[in-house]
Amino acid sequence: MHDGIADASIITDMTLPDNPHDDTDAGAATRRRIALWLALCAAMVFAMVVLGGTTRLTESGLSITDWRPVTGVLPPLGEADWQAAYDRYRTSPEFQTRNFWMSVADFKTIFWLEYLHRLWGRLIGLVFLLPFLWFLARGRLDRRLAWRLGALFALGAAQGLMGWYMVKSGLVDRPDVSHYRLAAHLGLAFAIYGGMAWLVLELWRPARPPPAARLRTHARAVLWWGALTVLYGALVAGLDAGMAYNTFPLMDGRLLPPDAWALTPPWLNPLENPALVQFIHRTLGVGLALIALVLWWRARHAAIGRAARRAVAATALMALVQTALGIATLLSAVALPLGVAHQAGAMVLFTLALWTVYELGATACPRRENSSAPIR
């Protein structure tokens, strides 16, 4: 995006580094170490997205009203510090219009979740940057891989700025963050996670079977359809659209509620009308399950490898699970455990769709003789 989804070259069309590997045991071992490090970083981003969803669902995200990237590492250490943080929160629109009943003790319960969310983001940055610099200094990265890792770090830094830009929108005149900025924040998290996950696949399994072009095109459609569904899920969350029309498959007895096109000009409705945004999101979700099932049906007798067959089947199964989680979340009026599970399910489905695209892709690039700095 800039709507939060990275360019396709970052996720679905990544080619291997100039010299993806040498054939020595040392080269293979280095690739595995880099892949394991990136897998850890990706797992931390996965947890970050789930934690961010929990922060959003518990309405804790506006409890810290300033952004101090360095000094903000430490939480309030005494009663005076807590009182100062509480006094800053009392000036926010959220406190003045919704949480005016909160005492300092009540404030602490929402503060800690947002603090943990921010602290975890800083920790991800350190866990990524320090090994990256070590691998770079030791000459373990070729030029192309180094640039790609540097781009991922830059995206991570941009994500921190985007997070604060999102929070600021809820500290001005209304106690809600911009749903556009929320979608950008979530989409960028998925892009970072997807970039890391793709590199893990390349480094861990550089050799792939011959391509299945038609199935890969279908798998890409599943991936990008899923990405669009995620973005609309963020719009639903930002507009609190999941709190209304808590019936399925109809919306209070109608296929499309009468207020779906209530805003003027009409083009605002697909982006800002909670009724239509929810309708689009639930339609995308059901459609995603259907196209994933069609992919599985087409792949049953196709000449593809065992790993690709497993990836396709797992993606189709998870699409059904995610649809069920979405329906349950809607019917419960976004109960916290179901809302968190639904967001985690989106990450799992995205991972499986990415794996499917990889397994159905072209063979690894041939080894080049003039690598600038081979992995060793």
How is this structure best described in words?
The structure is a single chain. It is built from 12 helices and no strands. The protein has 376 residues and is mostly helical. It folds into 2 domains: 18-206, no CATH class; 209-368, no CATH class.
Number of E strands? 0
Overall pLDDT score: 89
| Quaternary structure state of the chains depicted | single chain
Strand proportion, as a percent range, falls in under 5%
* Helical content band: 55-70%
Outline the biggest β-sheet. Answer: none
Number of separate domains: 2
Structural class, from helix and strand content?
Answer: mainly alpha
- Termini Cα gap: 35 Å
Uncertain runs with pLDDT below 50, 5 residues or more? 1-21, 363-374
Give a short overview.
With 376 residues, the protein is mostly helical.
Which structural traits does this protein have?
about 375 residues; mainly alpha; 2 domains; flat; disordered N terminus; disordered C terminus
What does the secondary structure layout of this molecule look like, with pairings?
Blueprint: H1 8-11, H2 25-57, H3 79-90, H4 93-97, H5 104-137, H6 143-168, H7 179-204, H8 213-238, H9 269-272, H10 274-299, H11 306-331, H12 336-359
Helix pairs in contact: 2-5, 2-7, 2-12, 5-6, 6-7, 7-8, 7-12, 8-10, 8-12, 10-11, 11-12
